[in-house]
Amino acid sequence: MLATTSGDKSVKIWDFAKVECVFTFTGHLHVVWGCSWHTCGDFVASCSMDNTVKMWDINSQRCRQTLRGHVDSVNSVEFLPFSNTLLTSAADKTLSLWDARTVNQTFSSSDLPVVMGH
């Protein structure tokens, strides 16, 4: 399976072997910048310009949780390997860690060095 994100506010799940979209998650209110698979393969987290992260359940094909805590566009999301921890970064210059099971923000900082480029 492959997950893609889009400017149309969606996350699409593809059957890579068949090269076809098997379902589409909708619910973000703005552009979806990126996504990350949980190690177990049952969940995908997506980040959006709507300031949220959503956790999608592949089996039920529904949004399981919405994480709120950033005050600007969430630009990246990543499940840490073999854990239930999500790392997010946002245009508000914050980096946050989240417990994906409880949806609690366990760490947030805007005091980290910012690398400018591109």
Which descriptors would you attach to this protein?
0% helix, four-stranded antiparallel beta sheet, mainly beta, Methylamine Dehydrogenase, Chain H
Description:
- By secondary structure, the chain is mainly β.
- The protein has one domain: 7 Propeller (Methylamine Dehydrogenase, Chain H), CATH 2.130.10.10.
- Helix content is 0%, strand content 55%.
- The chain has no helices and eleven strands.
- A hairpin with a 4-residue loop joins strand 6 and strand 7.
- The model has no long low-confidence stretch (mean pLDDT 93).
- One of its GO terms (cellular component) is axonemal central apparatus.
- Pfam families: WD40.
- Keywords: Repeat, WD repeat.
Secondary structure blueprint with pairings:
Layout: E1 2-5, E2 10-15, E3 20-26, E4 32-37, E5 43-48, E6 52-57, E7 62-68, E8 74-79, E9 85-90, E10 95-99, E11 104-109
Largest sheet: 4 strands, antiparallel
What is the count of structural domains? 1
Number of helices: 0
CATH topology: Methylamine Dehydrogenase, Chain H
**What's the end-to-end separation, in Å?**
31 Å
Strand content: over 45%
Can you tell me the CATH class? Mainly Beta
Reading the helices and strands in chain order gives: EEEEEEEEEEE
Radius of gyration: 14 Å
Mean pLDDT: 93
- At CATH level 2, the architecture is 7 Propeller
The outline comes out as globular
> Helix fraction?
under 10%
Weakly predicted, low-confidence segments: none
CATH superfamily: YVTN repeat-like/Quinoprotein amine dehydrogenase
Derived from helix and strand composition plus strand pairing, the structural class reads mainly beta
Order of strands across the main sheet: 4-5-6-7
Task: Please count the beta strands (DSSP E, at least 2 residues each).
Answer: 11
